[in-house]
Amino acid sequence: MPEPRIAWVSGQMSFALPEFGEAVQGKGHPLALISGTIIETSPCGNRWRNGLVFKLAVIGFANRWPTSAPCLFTKGQSMDHLTFLAEHRQITRRFFIRAGVVTGLVPLEDLRKVEAAAKPNQSIKQAKHPKAGALPDPYFTKQDDFRDVSRGDPLPHSLSEEKKREVGLTRETWRLEVLSDANNPANIDKPLTKADNSALDFASLLKLGEKQSVRFPKVMTCLNIGCPLGMGLWEGVPLREIVQLAKPKENLRRVFYHGYHNNDPKQVFRSSLSIGRVWEDPFDLPPVILCYKLNGELLASERGGPVRIVVPEDYGFKSVKWLSHLYLTNLASANDTYAEQGNDVESPMKTFAATLSLPREVKAGEKIAATGYAQVGIAGLAKVQVSIESDELPRQGDDPHFTKAKWVDAQLLKSPVNWSSLPGGKIPANTHGFDARGNPKTWPMRLTNAHWGAILPGLPKGKYTFRCRTIDEKGHAQPGPRPFRNSGHSKIESMVVIVKG
């Protein structure tokens, strides 16, 4: 078993329960409720990078990290998202105490002896804590805590400030060209170009935003990773407003776009949208935007600033960072970089569940507490269900999606009351999906995260497999209705629980 590691925040030891948000931060000799060993997985699933995390946790935590696990602090950054909402704290405490996993009260000072093991691993420059996009608090992930999967050699956000100014990656020097595709030209009257000094600059974009800006919540997820990179409140100007500046006339079927790519054609990362999606927002979706703010703050370079595209319903590959060029085209089909790599580029976000905590071992007869999150895709989320089966029972025929398992409903957590990570802890007025008082119009909200918990009855001695799944608003059970991997992660997660006599 690896040695334990403790996280420090602002010079204080921080003990937190990522399962649902139990945190204790303080000085002196506070007490923490400590559970038995819990196994925690990466929110991408329990196989991603072998990302198993062993911990002692209920109101505090002492992480046990394999050196290969992706749960890393980088560049000495503290993990501010380990301070959790009070309502989640109460729900978590109730879950674990009811489940009987609390084994005692341990002074936090006694755990400081292992602080030396808490040195951050500096070997992975891009890694962020993988729970950043899945934790219940802050519900909106702080910009510094997003996981980074940026492309580029070197990474554009790693360039010096002088180089960023030179290539247009600062707010003062950013320019966006809007052009007709030379190979499949659309008929436009007024292309926006650097050559004639008509390219859109940042100040002009903000000016448009004074009347045209929109903001909406969205979880940013990579198609090929599956786990959340971060949950944000994104703000910007609808893409259609920028397209209109070029005065298109006819032969316009798609828009494709790319960002800064180190002036190397081999590094171009391109995505595209149908012009119909640019013009209209079907099914009450927010518009596609040129984003310049995240959680009320100007977009950081690492998050794709000064300006990036954000497509509400799609995976992250559509939301290109460091936007520099828009092309209006008569091309009939997608020309996305991801399409050339075998991915389904017309697949909106899926609904699926993953486990954040589960006891690795329990005593016979002890209740079993499990917690996790669900990505709420385009189909919405009706419920999360869990199942635990003895490995001694034979599988019933050909049932790859476990439809014949005994599933029971988990409990979905309510929406936060205090939206930490936002200015004042409040939702700004006129935010898509929220009412005038800043409350969600529906919950769970589509295109975001939800959190769940379940307490399972005690079991006799043996080896068991735990699973979780979602049921969407159309009644489709995960991994349906789109089970294929190249259209996004939706595989049902399986985890082993040992019940000792």
Can you characterise this structure?
The chain is mainly β. It has 3 domains: 4-127, no CATH class; 156-341, Alpha-Beta Complex (Sulfite Oxidase, Chain A, domain 2); 352-500, Immunoglobulin-like, CATH 2.60.40. Helices cover 10% and strands 32% of the residues. The chain has 6 helices and 30 strands. It has helices at residues 86-99, 108-111, 161-167, 202-212, 239-245, 275-279, and strands at residues 4-5, 7-9, 12-17, 22-25, 31-35, 37-41, 52-57, 61-64, 102-107, 175-180, 187-188, 200-201, 214-221, 228-238, 248-250, 254-259, 270-274, 289-294, 297-298, 308-310, 323-329, 352-359, 361-363, 368-375, 383-390, 408-409, 411-412, 449-456, 462-471, 493-500. The strands form 7 sheets. The chain has an 8-stranded antiparallel β-sheet with strand order 1-8-7-6-22-24-28-27. Strands 12-10-21-16-17 form a 5-stranded mixed β-sheet. Strands 13, 14, 18, 19 and 20 form a 5-stranded antiparallel β-sheet that branches. Strand 18 (289-294) and strand 19 (297-298) form a beta hairpin. The chain is elongated and about 80 Å long. Residues 1-92 and 99-130 have low confidence and may be disordered.
List keywords for this structure.
mainly beta, eight-stranded antiparallel sheet, Sulfite Oxidase, Chain A, domain 2, 10% helix, 501 residues
- Spell out the CATH superfamily of the largest domain: Oxidoreductase, molybdopterin-binding domain
Mean pLDDT reading = 80
Through-space gap between termini: 22 Å
Give the class from helix and strand content and strand pairing.
mainly beta
Please state the CA-atom Rg, rounded to the nearest Å. 24 Å
CATH class division of the largest domain? Alpha Beta
Helix content: under 10%
Could you list the spans in which at least 5 consecutive residues all have pLDDT below 50?
Answer: 1-92, 99-130
Q: What is the overall silhouette?
A: elongated
Count up the domains.
3
